[in-house]
Amino acid sequence: MDYTNGTAVLPVEEEYEGVVYYLLKWKGYDDNFNTWEPSSNLDCPDLVRQFNREQRMREEASNLNPPKTQNELEFEAYLRNHARDGPPISVINDVDDQGVPPDFQYVDDYIYGENVPRPETLKETLFGCECEDGICKGFKCKCLKEMNKGMLYYRRDTGQVNVKPGNVIIECNSRCSCSARCPNRVTQQGRKVYLAIRRFAEKGWGVIATKRIEAGVFITYYYGEIITSQEADIRGNKYDEVGRTYLFDLDFCDDPSNDTSACLYTIDAWRFGNISHFFNHSCDPNLVVYPVMTDNGDLRLHHVAFFSKRVIEVGEELTFDYVGSVEKHESVEAKFDENIKPEIIEKYKCKCRAGNCRGYFHSI
């Protein structure tokens, strides 16, 4: 503790009859000589400001991290053992006694379903760059030159995405000479943001930020089981019965005729998934989706990558728009669709409470 004028403000304050009192420790004396003094008696404004600032931080931390229940501790222990794709994930549940979701398995890579190409076959058409010193620069990098129009789609200093949604991001791959810290390998470096899984009274589990997230920052991939579109139709019918779905079509294809039949695969994160399994919908989301290609030469099996759309403050929930554009993965204008059946609206009733809420969400 720093001392000013022979005193130190301890982390205690009280209010009596409208006057704020601080507990002071006097320099050179033991705690038996501590005294309560009104703020008007203090001649150390910098120390008081420091104390007040730290007090607010302690209160915020206490509100964000109340004492853990047994189920919360077990959930966090499960995540420590399975969620190894980034910083530790905490769990907050002051709503009910729910813990680890039943029949859910946390994964940090894809599960490949029946009739889906395996990773080893996806590398066959890859080519790599031979950039000097492992640093990829514009038209000198074969990956950037031939796939990204000679542009680096990330800020070189911070790794923040700097291209509009709707563009496919082609990162360097295992056949490239550049290092793992290459500025064109942002998503491959994993999740770096600090998150918590939080229980909400109306929506169930969701995800909040425990540290501020700047705009354009990579959050995570949408991991799950990759299945064929035919299998997705079968599962989708079952999921619709309960009004829930974790299906995300891999529908960003380069077919010039825009024939979506060329897009054959879907990610199902119902049973297998990562932190993105818990992302909720919002009609005014703070996350945006980009298709990203890494160690894979088949665009039909691109990564679904989440980036922050804007600054996300501590305690704010991370959300994306389930009703996204099929071709461009951009959030569509949040407006009511008169063609949506009433039973769908009731089953997929939106609870985001955004100012532009359309009142419902539908499967992706």
TrEMBL record:
<dbReference type="InterPro" id="IPR023780">
    <property type="entry name" value="Chromo_domain"/>
</dbReference>
<dbReference type="Pfam" id="PF00385">
    <property type="entry name" value="Chromo"/>
</dbReference>
<dbReference type="InterPro" id="IPR011381">
    <property type="entry name" value="H3-K9_MeTrfase_SUV39H1/2-like"/>
</dbReference>
<keyword id="KW-0156">Chromatin regulator</keyword>
<keyword id="KW-0158">Chromosome</keyword>
<keyword id="KW-0489">Methyltransferase</keyword>
<feature type="domain" description="SET">
    <location>
        <begin position="193"/>
        <end position="323"/>
    </location>
</feature>
<feature type="domain" description="Chromo">
    <location>
        <begin position="1"/>
        <end position="63"/>
    </location>
</feature>
<dbReference type="InterPro" id="IPR023779">
    <property type="entry name" value="Chromodomain_CS"/>
</dbReference>
<keyword id="KW-0539">Nucleus</keyword>
<dbReference type="InterPro" id="IPR003616">
    <property type="entry name" value="Post-SET_dom"/>
</dbReference>
<feature type="domain" description="Pre-SET">
    <location>
        <begin position="127"/>
        <end position="190"/>
    </location>
</feature>
<dbReference type="InterPro" id="IPR050973">
    <property type="entry name" value="H3K9_Histone-Lys_N-MTase"/>
</dbReference>
<dbReference type="InterPro" id="IPR000953">
    <property type="entry name" value="Chromo/chromo_shadow_dom"/>
</dbReference>
<dbReference type="InterPro" id="IPR046341">
    <property type="entry name" value="SET_dom_sf"/>
</dbReference>
<dbReference type="Pfam" id="PF05033">
    <property type="entry name" value="Pre-SET"/>
</dbReference>
<comment type="similarity">
    <text>Belongs to the class V-like SAM-binding methyltransferase superfamily. Histone-lysine methyltransferase family. Suvar3-9 subfamily.</text>
</comment>
<dbReference type="InterPro" id="IPR001214">
    <property type="entry name" value="SET_dom"/>
</dbReference>
<keyword id="KW-0949">S-adenosyl-L-methionine</keyword>
<keyword id="KW-0862">Zinc</keyword>
<dbReference type="InterPro" id="IPR007728">
    <property type="entry name" value="Pre-SET_dom"/>
</dbReference>
<keyword id="KW-0808">Transferase</keyword>
<feature type="domain" description="Post-SET">
    <location>
        <begin position="346"/>
        <end position="362"/>
    </location>
</feature>
<dbReference type="Pfam" id="PF00856">
    <property type="entry name" value="SET"/>
</dbReference>
<keyword id="KW-0479">Metal-binding</keyword>
<dbReference type="InterPro" id="IPR016197">
    <property type="entry name" value="Chromo-like_dom_sf"/>
</dbReference>
<protein>
    <recommendedName>
        <fullName>Histone-lysine N-methyltransferase</fullName>
        <ecNumber>2.1.1.355</ecNumber>
    </recommendedName>
</protein>
